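Narrative of activities, Objective 1.

The group set out to show that a structural description can be obtained from nothing but a protein's sequence at a throughput compatible with the screening campaign. Below is one input-output pair from the validation batch, recorded exactly as produced.
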Amino acid sequence: MPITFHPNYQITQSLLEKLYQIDQIKEQVKGMPLTSKVLAGLKETSRIVTTHYSTVIEGNRLTEREVREVLKGQAIQGRERDEKEVKGYFRALDEVAVLANKHTVTETNIQTLHGLIIGNNTPTPYRMEQNSVVDSQTGIIIYMPPEAKDVGPLMTGMVEWINESTHTLPIPVVAAIAHYQFVTIHPYYDGNGRTARILTTLLLHQSGYDLKGIYNLEEYYYQHIQDYYNALAVGPSHNYYMGRAEADITGWIEFFVSGMLYSFQSVQKHLQLQSAEKDQSKTINALDGRQKQALALFEKNEFITAKEVEELFHFAGRTARQLLQKWVRQGFVVIADPSKKARKYKLNNSLKK
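Output recorded for this entry:
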C-alpha cells in the first residue's frame, strides 16, 4: 500500500507574486518568433549547461568546455568517471524530451531516468538496504533516510500525489515539492540529487513550463549552492522518522520558485536583446550612405554638432545644418540641446547599441 503524502507548506503572497511573474514570462516567450536553427542552438546550449551544473554540484570535475568535448566524443584523460556521469545525464535529458509528451509521470519513468543517469540502459530498482547522507568533509551522518521497506510505498505515494496535484496546484509548486520529497525518500544509493533535479525538469516540461527548452535551474543552484543545501535541509530533520516527513517546506518552495523566476528572467532578457539587435540591424541597413557614415561620430560621443558633420563630409556650415534638420525629420537624430549657437544632436534610441 502507498504511504499517503501530505506536504507541509504555505502559499505566501511573495510566492504568488513570483508565480504570476513566471507565468507572464512563459506566455511572452511562447509568442517570441525564433527560427528553428536559432532554437536548436539555444536548446543544445541549455542541455549542455544543465548537464554541466547538475553533475558539478555532485563533485564532477569537468569544466563546461570539457563537457562539450566529451559530448562530441572526445576523451579527457583521467576523468573516466566524470565522463560517464556527463554522458549519462545528457542521455537522461534525451529521455525527458520523449517523456515530456506524456501528461503523467510513473515510477518506471523515474527508475528509467535514474538508470540512464548512472549509466545503465534499464530502470533501476529502489535500494534494498539502508543508506545515509554523509558530510563529505567530516564523515558525519547528516541525514538518515527512511528504511528500505518503506521506500517503495513512499515512492508510490509521491507519484500519486504528483499526478493528482498537477490539476490543483501551480506546477512550479508541484515540481518543488517533488524535488524535496524525492531527496527525502532517497530511494537510491547514488544519483539521488541528479535524479531529483531531472524529475523537476520533466514535470515542468510536461506542463508547458519548458520555456521552449532553453532554460535551466541547475546553474542557479550552483551559484547559490549553500542556499540550495540549506533550503533542502529544513528544520531538525536529521532522520526521516524524526521531523523530516512533517517539516514545513515553505522556505524550500520559495527558494525553488525564486530560482525558476531568475532563470526565466535570464532567458527573457537574452531573447529581448537578440530581438533588439535584430531590429537594430534592420534599421541600420535602411539608413542611407551618409547616415551610416555619421554613426561613427556617435561611437566617440553621445552628442554631435553641425560643425562635426561639416568636418566629416567637408560641407559648408549651412549645408551641414540643413542635413541635420532633414535627419531630425527622418527620425535619425533628435535635438538634445536647442541652442542656436551650439545646437547638439543625439542618436535616435532605436539605433543605440
